[in-house]
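Hi all, long-time lurker, first post. I run a small reading group and we've been trying to get comfortable going from sequence to structure in the token notation. Rather than ask abstract questions, I figured I'd post a concrete chain and ask someone more experienced to write out its structure so we can walk through it together at our next meeting. Sequence below, copied exactly:
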Amino acid sequence: MAEHTFKQFDIELETIRTKVLQMGGLVEQQVARAMAGLASGEIFEIDQVIANDNKVNLLEVDLDEACSHIIARRQPAANDLRTIMTVIKTITDLERVGDEAKKIAKMAKRIHEADAGFVPRVELRHAAEPAANMLHKALDAFARLDPHAAAEVVREDANVDREFKSIMRQLITFMMEDPRTISSSIEILFIAKSIERIGDHAKNISEYVIYLVKGRDVRHTGVDEIVREAST
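-- Answer (accepted) --
Happy to help. Here is the structure in token form:
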């Protein structure tokens, strides 16, 4: 392969990496706006999240096609192939985070259209902020190719899981004490589950970063094993 072709290939790889980060920025914004709309009840904000989900989907399709074209034209091997595979897996998780943000927005709209007297007062921020931070850190680890930072994101997933279980217990208590809160409690539970899933997707992205840098698939291994692999 000629030197010019090598340089062009590097440019193509860097372009798709940049576009992944652009998609990640949009998805982060979607999550933040969905949670802000839930807190404020601002319907315009909520509707914008729902409408912008299509932009996330189009970015996924665009990046998927770009990766397919690179594979067909360049036949990448070794680390270059890992880069392409990591991008394909990462954009799938980012698209799903976008879906979760859309779900949060839809549930938020239903909650604010319901009778406020029967909406349980449950603090979601303790789960939402760590999950959003995980997503941001996972994207930063991808940008810097930092397996250590990626391993820390994986470690933080347990905190989001604990918060979700706490929220679920609170909602069960509300529903048992006052059946009139059941409808809103279920909607809040869906939101809490979406937040928990955002954390899961951030964890997945972090595991892909470790695979990209270290060359080992660490999915379905324990947290301690992932931390060891990132440190070697």
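A couple of things your group might point at:
The chain has seven helices and no strands.
The chain has a mean pLDDT of 92.
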